[in-house]
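Narrative summary of target 7.
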Amino acid sequence: MKFDLFALMQKRDESWTSSQVFDDLTEQVKLADESCFETVWFAEHHFSNYSLCPSPLMAVAYYAGLTRRVRLGTAVVVLPLYEPMRLVQEIGMTDVLTGGRLVLGIGSGYQDYEFQRFRTPLAEGLDRSLEILDLIELAMHQDQFEYHGRYYQYPPTQIAIKPLRVPEIWIAGLGGHDKVQRRMAQSGYVPMLTPSWKPMSSISPVREAQRALYEEIGRGGGNAPLGLMRFVHVTDDRKQALEAAERARYSSRVSLSMRLNYSKLNDIYVAEQQAKNEPPIEEMVENYVIGSVEHCIEKILEDYEVMGHSHLLINPQLGGIPSKRVMRTLELMISDIIPEVEKELKRRGVEQPVITQKPMAPVVEAA
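Modeled conformation, tokenized:
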């Protein structure tokens, strides 16, 4: 199992400046680059304090100049909010600027508040995303291509700046439609999941369905890659543990209100509203990865027993966790937790799945 760092870049209230959010992130990214993390992921959101990053490709290009080793990923590029031909060129340029370290996470988006301001119907998000995925695949793999879809039509075109190598593609939020899942499995793209504040059993059926599909198409269910995103906070203090869970709860409440379209905004700040059927805070502490070094090791291994994921994306800054505590969590992950987890997985004979990707889905029309 590989370990990654996930950055949401939240600004919970006016006590945080935008510069402070990114200064703190820079400290985290540099630590990740100097240690055992494989990839740093940058989220994309718009017009609210839920995330201050409207352009993950810009973040990747910037942090490429401050790092030397770690891969840099978009989590995720919200495809329907882009002009596709500009996007495919920026993907190529960003990979060149990173020296081939770009990992391309893509998704269809879920916040209607964002879509309205990009003049794009949220209901069209999935279908538009699939067409843009067609175009990304064509641009990465063909010298010249044309496209005639429902939403996008382009004459014969060539991309002047191609990536140094075709980036790995990771996917979040493209729905549960069998056609979409089959395309992901056939191409070997990596799905991204999170249980948020729920128990891991809430998403295990999705993992089992992915494995079954891999078996059906002859790729072997045990080789199915998966990126699992988890909020992690390391502390021996019960009061701090409850506070960390409260901060993560804040983030999930905001996300749900934006997803289900009942959010209330004051300027850029999304009001925190209790969600329907949310678990008590004590259950959230147990459902998240919060606690002592020993507890976090046990929890991460329990998660692996259920999901068998290839990558664990550590999200340490939900709800404005103070920077010193974020860094302490990352330092303990590096020094104590990751080595023990790796040692135990090695003892169990766990082998890291090899990610092999090749787009195999038919496109609408290609030249």
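The mean pLDDT is 95.
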